[in-house]
Amino acid sequence: MAAEYNCTQYFSQYPEANSDEAKDLFITSLIDTIVKPYRPYHYYILTSLVLFAFFANIMIVIVISQKEMRSSGVNVTMMLIAVCDFGCSVSALAQLLLRNFSDYYSSYITAYAQLIVDYFQIAFHASSLYLAVGMSFCRAISLVLTKDTRDTWQSPRYALRLGIVLCLPVFFIASTNLFLNYVKEKDENGLVELEVSPLSVANSCWYMKFALVLSGSLFKIIPCILMSGLSIVILGKINAGKQRAIALSRSQSDNTQSKIDRSSRFIQCIIIIFVVTEFPQGFFSVVGGLSINDYINYFQFFSVFTNLLAYFNTTTSFIIYSTLSSKFRKLFVQLFVPRFIKDRIGKSSNIVVVQSTFVESHVI
């Protein structure tokens, strides 16, 4: 496959795909034993994951947009992350509908629409990562500042401004992926397909290699490194705050420390999940850019798993909020759980309390 593009790569190359030498390669056996058996199920698993992300992020935006939640800069940033994850899930649904089990498209419009939704998927997903970096940065800065300055860094208005500043460059840089492919007519029946663009294969595939390395490093690895560094800073400040709290009165220390621990644990969970899910994708993309022929022949088959990691990440905000935020759970129940279910739960709780009281009094 790669031989027709005349690409060069920086590392020693595997034998050409489908050759006799390639049959005995370990990576070929991985493709045959793992990727190919999984492929028939990928569409359904990915669709289920994307649909969950679609509805989960809608609910996050609805809940966090309530007056009780949007007074916090962290919550505003999380709402922006949910908006980006929602845009990513919409783009993924559009990708699945446009492709419709086929490598070909019915018209030029659908083929160009595929290029556009691919761009938005990359841009929205990368924006959510940098928003998480911005949120962690604001949290780290607020831990070392005075109260007045800290309130500024944690204010909703400041979070909104920072989100815009972070997202605009991401959407601009992500446009480099629009030029990797072009639309080509397949046959006289009107079917069209996406082919690797002449720009991508010019000069030994320089632009293709550049786009892969840029996407993997700037949109995946660098955010992971930044979030890891900020997490170390936050943990250090939390430990220092606990030591200082020993000198305060117990009531004041418990109140202050509980607020620090809750918000910081929340950010730590996001950082860990983002690093675990995003760093492998970035590493895969950078290695693919440096070994472009092997990427075309072999590595791209594993993209089905990196796609799952990416779309799983779009669901983590809902999971983390539901687990760590009691205020989110309370508002979620108020907004989305039907009244008759809440009434039944309330009655069951009352019955349990009455029975427990009766038994205790009887024993006495």
TrEMBL record:
Keywords: Membrane, Receptor, Transmembrane, Transmembrane helix
Residues passing through the membrane, by range: 41-64, 76-98, 122-146, 158-180, 210-235, 266-292, 298-321
Subcellular localization: Membrane
CDD domains: 7tmA_FMRFamide_R-like
InterPro entries: 7TM_GPCR_serpentine_rcpt_Srw, GPCR_Rhodpsn_7TM
G-protein coupled receptors family 1 profile domain ranges (all copies): 56-321
Entries under Pfam families matching the protein: 7TM_GPCR_Srw (PF10324)
Chief location bin: membrane
The name this protein goes by in its record: G-protein coupled receptors family 1 profile domain-containing protein
